[in-house]
Structures are given as structure tokens and as C-alpha cells.
TrEMBL record:
Top-level taxon: Eukaryota
Ranges for domain LIM zinc-binding: 17-83
GO cellular component, one term: nucleus
Assigned keywords, A-Z: DNA-binding, Homeobox, LIM domain, Metal-binding, Nucleus, Zinc
Protein name as annotated: LIM zinc-binding domain-containing protein
Region entry Disordered, spans: 95-114
Cell compartments where the protein resides: Nucleus
Classification via Gene3D superfamilies: Cysteine Rich Protein (2.10.110.10)
GO terms classed as biological process: neuron differentiation
InterPro entries: LIM_Homeobox_TF, Znf_LIM
Origin species: Hymenolepis diminuta (Rat tapeworm)
Any GO molecular function: DNA-binding transcription factor activity, RNA polymerase II-specific
């Protein structure tokens, strides 16, 4: 395919991103939830496959291994046993379901804030010593 020109219809058919739940094509103006590099959901389609409760940004969820559909936390047993129960309250769906976190596609993981810098007493003394000699030291202190 490289180096060839293709029409818009074929480009969309071959390369366009499709939503994981509804399989519709993603348009440029649509807001979405990206759960992995290859999975994108409409905000409204990102819901538990057991109870149809909408999952919000940052909500913990697990995956049903047979359908790969999201399952909300209330249908999962605590992480130590790592099993999910079906909607009727009995039986296991999977022995290996692990929770993950949903996020927006271009959302920064640290939301623009740096972590707080902490210095040991020795580092602090050295820092003050350097600033006494030069109030604008270089980064190789």
C-alpha cells in the first residue's frame, strides 16, 4: 500500500478508528475514552456490560475475557482472588481479570503539576552553599 494513492472511502475503510462498543467510525470532533492504544469508546458507550452503568473517567473496571467488554467494580471480587462474578451473583467469568484505569486520549497523566522536591539535610546544605557563591547557578551543581 505504501506509495499508492487511495480514495477517501478506501482510506476510511482501511485505516479509520472505530469505536470498540458500537463499531461506528470515529469523527474528528467526537470526544472519546481511550482505554488502550487500540480501544476507543464514545463516552456514552463506555459502560458495564453487566448492569449498563456508565463508567466514568478514572473508574476502576475489569474485562470479561470472553467478550473483552468492560465490567464495573461491583461485579468483581476483591483483587486478591481476582475473579469476577456474573450479574446473577454466582459463578465465575474469569480467573484472571485485572482492573485498569480509563483515561482521555490526550489527558496528561500528571495534570501539569510537578512532584514536590525534597532534599536531605546534606543536599540542602550544599544547595545553600552554591547559592551563596552564585544566586543563578547552572544545572550541574
Amino acid at each position: 500500500m505504501e506509495g499508492r494513492l487511495i480514495c477517501r472511502h478506501d482510506y476510511i475503510r482501511l485505516y479509520a478508528v472505530k469505536f470498540a462498543a458500537c463499531k461506528m467510525l470515529m469523527l474528528m470532533h467526537e470526544l472519546c475514552m481511550r482505554t488502550s492504544p487500540n480501544e476507543v469508546y464514545h463516552f456514552n458507550c463506555f459502560q458495564c456490560s453487566m448492569c449498563d452503568e456508565q463508567l466514568s473517567v478514572g473508574a476502576e473496571y475489569a474485562r470479561d475475557p470472553s467478550t473483552n467488554a468492560p465490567i464495573c467494580r461491583k461485579y468483581c471480587v476483591p483483587r486478591s482472588s481476582s475473579t469476577c462474578i456474573d450479574g446473577n451473583g454466582g459463578g465465575t467469568i474469569s480467573e484472571s481479570v485485572t482492573p485498569s484505569t480509563a483515561h482521555l486520549p490526550h489527558q496528561s497523566y500528571n495534570s501539569g503539576k510537578r512532584g514536590r522536591t525534597t532534599l536531605s539535610a546534606k543536599q540542602h546544605a550544599r544547595f545553600e552553599q552554591v547559592f551563596e557563591t552564585n544566586p543563578r547557578p547552572n544545572t550541574k551543581v
